[in-house]
TrEMBL record:
InterPro entries reported in the protein's UniProt record: Aminopeptidase_N-like_N, Aminopeptidase_N-like_N_sf, ERAP1-like_C_dom, M1_APN-typ, Peptidase_M1, Peptidase_M1_aminopeptidases, Peptidase_M1_dom, Peptidase_M4/M1_CTD_sf
Active site positions: E457 (proton acceptor)
Native organism: Hypsibius exemplaris
Subunit organization: Homodimer; disulfide-linked.
Domain Aminopeptidase N-like N-terminal: 117-343
Name this polypeptide is given: glutamyl aminopeptidase
Superkingdom field: Eukaryota
A GO biological-process term: proteolysis
Membrane spanning residue stretches: 41-66
């Protein structure tokens, strides 16, 4: 799954047995969530049994069946020799409703031992009109339902005496509905029939059906199922006829809407990951359960663009519903390969409005059709993604030696999608703005984003689809791999961008920050059970830490060896498809072991996977003996509350892959070689390095230069040094010539290392670990602030600059106050002015080779564009005079273009360079803008047909207003569900909260309107996590109680976000009390003019 996802509420249901029938009315609300089984169209569950065996098996089964009734023997006698007939079941009354004790079943494997679903025959009937017009032929009562749908699940059991079948089915009611739960079956509704169906059948009672939490149902049978053995195969067909809702919450099977002229039009699509397939049809909704699927879609004839995971068996045919007058079409699709149910995907849309661009790729033989599908008005913008997909798929197949074994690859962009994308096999669904790139209008960052998300999703074709985590407690085996591989694929497809070195900034840095929270979790998390807990696993730890740990494995093993091991892992595990972390480590060990018999990767990596957090490695060089280096590792954890202990008590000892280089070593090759000389530090502490580290002790020569550990940040840990070593690093960095020749290249010339140093220094200071110049005093911020202040104006690379400014932004948020903010803001203005003036950032345009009149190979590196934009962002934020004046000039010129030209292609050739800097010009131009200008932007936002990415640029600009009433109006617009799509509400709140006034207004709005907002987890993370006072903490906890609403945290989707936010606020409170005055005093001494 791509980044940016969020999940909506997953409400619980009670355990109820009943035999009465209840009429359930369709929802009248336009914001139904999920779907619910409808009792007024009674579900039909048919258990169909096919016995195939030889004479010996027939005898055995006959003995068993003889114990039921004589009628069964009569049926069997009438059947051909060698075929064993199964009984059919007529269900009798089950008695009055029974309220059993609460059952907590979250894993089907816990309740269904031995039961294996092998195939689904799914028929979905889509009752959705093309438009919202009142004259649409679909009856109003049937609209937005799947009335008339059915699914037949073929299954078998390998365990004897099975009398229950447990699976998932949506039986919850959306909030606000007046209808009850469907909790009833009546006589004749559940039958067991032989396969093929025969009129000669014997009936067996089904005792009851239970509805449990997490949309689990349990079917209790009056007779045990017969187990499949070596001698006989017994298959059952479990059939449901059902009606469900097609909601508008972007989850399960849902409807999305878009404008075509003055019409509101609909399409139907799906988002099932991780546990939302049950919202569309009854199923075994777990990642470790793989089945094949045959799908039939029935839909109004006005829809003709239909897609699922596989190709159509034949062109769509006319279909007439029983007693129906609406003209329908029916599309039947080919059988899939075995896959988890969440990888199913559907698209039903208008052929006039949605088009496909297709190429026949030479990736496979015969050629593989790859398509981009999207709104016909912007389908041309999918050309870049289409070209990227071909290059990416070729690289993926070449590196991992695994061809794409699927008949097609469709990539569809839909207007509403909570995630950035989902990797459904054969039909990858993207948020429209994540897939479309418009030359001359879209920014460099948007182009990079398209490449990144396509790389990520297509990585899943192997790591996620072909090999799927057995359970969501190891989701990093899907998402960590895709996050790791996407950078390699993106670099291969765009070698001139210069983004490869940014892996550690985008991934490792973010993972280290998240994993330092006391609320973090391990990569392998066996505690995951509930839907809310599953949601919480799709986070920075599973994505970024998973990728960083894989990067560490690759660094230790060397990339070619690591890749070869992955090739073997894929080949060994693709037969079963379901994987555990032990499978990965075993194969990595198998590849390395012949060469290094003492190398035990499983042991070395165990705590990196099974334990939360990571270590900080403190190195101390002996002044008396420069050749001696002591080390100590402790868990790096942010303190919370009044607890002044920076390192939480933890007995974990990590096996640390240790690399070391001396600052006096010259040459880029020498730096790379040092990154490969690895030894393991397996003790908590020692006065000297272990003997096996002799390969790295060259760095400890008598040379008096500084030491640098964790070379090029291959390891997932932080490094601290003694004060003398830190001072030497600060001195060397302040004198560095970043334009030096390769022969004079040192470790500090490496941008990865500069970013690593800066991030480690600030975070060590954050918990008081940086050594003070006065050994009698605790650590302070002098090391990180002098590190940055001494050299940053000469920085030329985006990664290190961003690392510095990210950490400084935390200081800015914490120092907001009448006595601490003015000196800090004044210092930042002094710091950014020379950097802004030397860079001329507005004039450094990205010239896209696809733009009109562009010369070949004229595209600049992505790094340089982002570097310049970051300078503008920061300089204007701290009110560098030249920056603000230029922003106002460009903003005014942009408004003067008029609404028809404001986002028209081709403006990149104008001197304003509005493409790359438009969001910055709109923001800081609007900062001092007038009400009339703000209203002009509002008109564009509401009435324009511009792309969603351009709407977000407008939104960001409007969010920068310094006027309370405008921000309050924007908050209302962002949450109305019309102006801004629900998927973008989190982004809107993030933009608004960038400035102190906006943050306060957003926090107040969030508290008052909690229950009506979408994307609440991301809003809590952005808004709640940056609060810093005790009274705000009390407000946050009070809001958490509102969100819990009497439920257990494990059952509330936003619980994890709240708990992380509360821990961060406790850290913020402690930090403010210890460091705010200190930092405010320190910055007064920096960058002052000479007297």
């Amino acid at each position: 799954m791509g980044r940016g996802q969020a999940f909506t509420d997953h409400r619980e249901t009670e355990v109820v047995k009943t035999t009465t029938r209840t009429t359930v009315k369709p929802l009248s609300s336009s914001r139904e969530t999920g779907w619910m089984w409808q009792a007024r169209y009674l579900p039909l569950i048919i258990l169909t049994v096919l016995f195939a065996g030889v004479l010996a098996a027939l005898i055995g089964i006959s003995v068993l069946l003889a114990q039921t009734t004589a009628k069964l023997n009569t049926c069997n006698a009438a059947r051909p020799q060698g075929v064993t007939a199964a009984p059919t079941v007529t269900v009798g009354p089950t008695g009055p409703p029974v309220e059993p004790e609460e059952k907590l079943i979250y894993r089907l494997s816990e309740a269904n031992e031995g039961i294996l679903p092998t195939h689904y025959d799914l028929i979905l009937q889509i009752h959705v009109p093309v438009t919202s017009a009142a004259d649409e032929p679909i009856p109003v009562a049937d609209r937005f339902t799947t009335k008339g749908s059915s699914v037949a699940i073929t299954l078998r059991t390998t365990k004897a005496n099975v009398t229950t079948i447990t699976l998932h089915a949506r039986h919850d009611v959306p909030e606000g509905s007046q209808s009850g739960h469907l909790q009833k079956f009546k006589e004749g509704a559940v039958t067991v029939t032989e396969k093929p169906i025969s009129t000669k059948s014997k009936t067996i009672p089904v005792t009851s059906v239970e509805y449990l939490k997490a949309d689990i149902i349990v079917i209790h049978l009056g007779e045990a199922l017969t187990a499949t053995t070596e001698n006989i195969t017994v298959e059952y067909s479990l059939k449901f006829e059902f009606e469900g809702f097609i909601g508008d919450d972007n989850e399960g099977l849902y409807r999305s809407q878009y404008k075509k002229g003055s019409d509101t039009k609909y399409l139907v699509t799906s988002h099932f990951q991780a546990y939302k397939a049950r919202r569309a049809f009854p199923c075994f909704d777990e990642p470790g359960i793989r089945s094949t699927f045959t799908t039939t879609l029935r839909y109004p004839a006005t829809f003709l663009m239909t897609r699922t995971n596989t190709a159509e068996v034949r062109p769509a045919q006319n279909w007439v519903a029983p007693n129906g007058t609406v003209l329908w079409k029916e599309s039947v699709f080919e059988r899939t390969k075995p896959m988890p149910v969440y990888l199913n995907a559907f698209l039903v849309s208008s052929a006039d409005d949605f088009k496909a661009n297709t190429v026949e790729s030479d990736l496979n033989t015969p050629p593989l059709p790859i398509s981009v599908i999207g709104n016909a008005d912007i389908i041309a913008h999918g050309a870049y993604a289409l070209a990227q997909s071909q290059a990416i798929m070729k690289e993926l197949a070449k590196v991992y030696q695994e061809p794409y074994d699927w008949p097609k690859l469709d990539m569809v962009g839909v207007p509403d999608y909570n995630a950035g994308a989902t990797e459904n096999w054969g039909l990858v669904v993207y948020r429209e703005s994540s897939l479309m790139y418009e030359p001359g209008v879209s920014t460099a960052d948007q182009k990079r984003g398209v490449s990144a998300i396509v790389s990520h999703e297509l990585s899943h074709m192997i790591f996620g689809n072909l090999l799927t985590t057995e359970w969501w407690g190891d989701v990093w085996l899907n998402e960590g791999f895709a996050s790791y591989i996407e950078y390699r694929l993106m670099e291969a497809a765009n070698p001139n961008w210069g983004t490869k070195y940014l892996f550690t900034y985008w991934t490792t840095k973010r993972a280290l920050e998240s994993d330092s929270q006391p609320t973090t979790h391990a990569l392998h998390n066996p505690a995951v059970q509930t839907p809310a807990q599953i949601d919480a696993m799709f986070d920075v730890i599973s994505y970024e830490k998973g990728a960083a740990v894989l990067h560490m494995m690759s660094g230790v093993m060397r990339e070619p060896v690591f890749t070869a091991a992955l090739v073997r892992y894929i080949d060994r595990m693709k037969g079963t498809g379901s994987v555990k972390y032990e499978d990965l480590l075993a194969e990595l060990d198998n590849v390395v072991a012949p060469a290094e018999s003492s190398f035990d990767l499983t042991t070395h990596m165990k705590n990196w996977i099974l334990k939360a957090g990571y270590p900080v490695l403190t190195l101390t060089r002996s002044a008396a003996n420069p050749g001696a280096l002591s080390f100590k590792q402790t868990k790096f954890t942010l303190p919370i509350g009044a607890n002044d202990t920076s390192i939480a008590p933890d007995a974990t000892v990590w096996d640390i892959p240790f690399t070391l280089i001396n600052g006096g070593v010259l040459g880029a090759d020498a730096v790379s070689a040092a990154a490969e000389r690895t030894c393991w530090l397996t003790a908590r502490s020692a006065e000297t390095l272990p003997d096996e580290c002799s390969t790295v002790t060259d760095a400890l020569a008598s040379d008096d230069s500084y030491l640098f550990a964790n070379v090029q940040q291959n390891g997932f840990y932080r490094v601290n040094y003694d004060r003398d070593n830190w001072d030497k690093i600060i001195s060397a960095l302040s004198k560095i010539d970043l334009g030096a020749d390769a022969a004079d290249f040192t470790i500090l010339h490496d941008p990865i290392s500069r970013g690593q140093l800066i991030d480690d220094a600030f975070n060590l200071a954050k918990i008081g670990l940086t050594p003070s110049a006065d050994i009698t005093k605790p650590g302070d911020y002098s090391i990180p602030m002098h590190l940055v202040d001494g050299y940053i104006t000469t920085e030329t690379k985006y990664g290190p600059l961003a690392s510095a400014l990210d950490n400084i932004r935390y200081l800015e948020q914490m120092l907001r106050g009448p006595t601490t903010y003015p000196p800090f803001s004044a210092y930042m203005t002094r710091l950014m002015t020379p950097l802004y003036e030397s860079a001329s950032p507005w004039d450094n345009a990205w010239t896209d080779a696809a733009e009109p009149n562009a010369t070949p190979n004229s595209e600049e590196t992505y790094d340089s564009v982002m570097f310049n934009n970051l300078i503008i962002e920061t300089a204007c934020f701290y009110e560098v005079d030249g920056c603000l004046k230029e922003a106002v000039r460009r903003f005014s010129a942009w408004l003067n273009l008029g609404p028809d030209q404001a986002f028209a292609p081709g403006n990149s050739s104008a001197p304003l360079n509005i493409i790359q800097t438009k969001s910055l010009a709109l923001c800081y131009g609007m900062r001092s803008g007038s009400s009339a200008q703000w209203n002009d932007m509002k008109t564009l936002l509401i009435n324009s047909t511009i792309t969603n990415s351009n709407k977000l640029a407008l939104l960001r600009g409007m969010a920068c207003s310094d006027d309370d009433s405008r921000i309050e109006e924007l908050l209302e617009l962002s949450a109305d569900g019309i102006t801004i799509r629900a998927q973008d509400v989190g982004s809107a709140f993030s933009y608004i909260a960038r400035f102190p006034k906006g943050h306060a207004l957003a926090w107040n709005y969030l508290q008052k309107n909690w229950k009506t907002l979408a994307r609440r987890s991301s809003i809590i993370a952005d808004i709640g996590g940056s609060l810093k006072s005790n009274w705000q903490l009390a407000q946050l906890r009070e809001l958490y109680e509102v969100a819990l609403d009497g439920k257990e945290p494990r059952d509330v989707p936003e619980a994890a976000a709240f708990e992380r936010a509360i821990a961060r606020v406790e850290t913020n409170i402690l930090w403010t009390s210890k460091y705010a005055a200190q930092v405010a005093s320190l910055v007064k001494t920096l960058r002052q003019p000479n007297p």
